[in-house]
């Protein structure tokens, strides 16, 4: 009877998602339903302690600060300046402004921590330029949707902070582990675009304007303040001078200064940034809270121990286990948004890492790459809809444009499996808190 009840709860969860219910409610309601069915009103008494424990986390305090910092930079128009500066520097590279899409997303990702914010910010600036210059619509929208996913791999990353909360893994180590894979993925995207543009010149018209010293200096003026902010934040975290939360708080202060000096940050826009950041943070923390309640219910049911015993009993090899995860996350990516994938799977999968000798930091990076794929996987892939709404074109064009980038992400996962030091070397070299 106990097993049937657990199966019923998971069916309810999947059914609520399938009907379009918001992810936090789809997670929260089955958890509460299980507790009530298992022990009546008395079983719900533990919700108070579980609720307090879910939000009483110093790790989570970095999220609203990173969200606010990104919103200040976006709202002040600095995203436009960064994109303009990068476009001057890479316009002569095969692929032209398509390369700027990826480079711009990579730079903005290093501040935003959000895939959607990255795609939206760069997309609003880039798409009008790309259309006006006759770039291929599929590759233009596909590169922006895929480039936006860099927001959760290149640190700081909100997804990594949430993962760290559930696994008690060092946020600083996760951030460090994401640097090299993030750079590698960015370069792989850019190499693909260069090859595609060389093979089919009509998809990306070549720029003929000469790259003068004056042009380079103007571009650097647009980019350098942004880069200094990024390097300052990440350097403080990596060297142990500041925790992620302290670095994010300092980042907010410097973002205001930079936005005031180099952007257009009025008092009204600053207040709007506070409002938008509050809404975004509330959504993230509500999903996290709902997941903690669901995890509490599953802990009461002993689901984690049962799943661990079942999978270990299958005697799967490490590669077979990783392949099973590959199938699981690929399927989930088409149904559940990014944070939902973390909060649903990580509490159940984390106990399995030790028996297979899998490093939690390495696993966190692999999970984030799979989440990146989910951002551009229909029907749920939110980046697809963000870019489609900006482009006001066909969703099918955006989807088709992302297919090559899907394949590149699969290749990155393969590289991480064959060469785990891609993720683990930097954390082993730098001490962080």
Largest sheet: none
| Low-confidence residue ranges | none
Query: What structural class do you assign from the helix and strand content?
Result: mainly alpha
State the helical fraction.
over 70%
Radius of gyration: 22 Å
**Taking all residues together, what is the mean pLDDT?**
80
The general outline is globular
**β-strand amount:** under 5%
End-to-end gap: 46 Å
**What order do the SSEs take from the amino end to the carboxyl end, as H and E?**
HHHHHHHHHHHHHHHHHHHH
How many helices in DSSP terms?
A: 20
Number of strands: 0
Query: Please, how many domains?
Result: 1
How would you describe what is shown here?
There is one protein chain. The chain contains 20 helices and no strands. Helix 9 runs parallel beside helix 16 (338-349), helix 13 runs parallel beside helix 16 and helix 16 (338-349) runs antiparallel to helix 17. The protein has one domain. The N and C termini lie far apart (46 Å). Helices cover 77% and strands 0% of the residues.
